[in-house]
Amino acid sequence: MYTLFVTLQVRSDKRDRFLAAIADNAAASVRDEPGCLRFDVMQDAKHFDRFYFYEIYTDRAAFDAHKAAPHFAVWRQAADDCVVQGSQVNTFSDMFVTHASAVSA
Asked: For the chain, what are the domain ranges?
């Protein structure tokens, strides 16, 4: 599996637009992309405008398909407006070990 962990800072005045856009992107990714297994969005507990995404794809090709999806283009437009320039850090990795409980979100 191929994973992506994203850290970014959102402009305070654009927070509502950001939240709507990332919620739509995450939902469409899991719903419409067979290769997207998980898309979590977390808010930092101490920094109100810092967010983290955790995404799991079946492989690199599935992630490439994600970037080509129509909903991703809509997300990128919102991100260009809402995310503090230069704050986004993407960390890619292959997943080697994972454990989950019987109950998952």
From this structure: 2-94
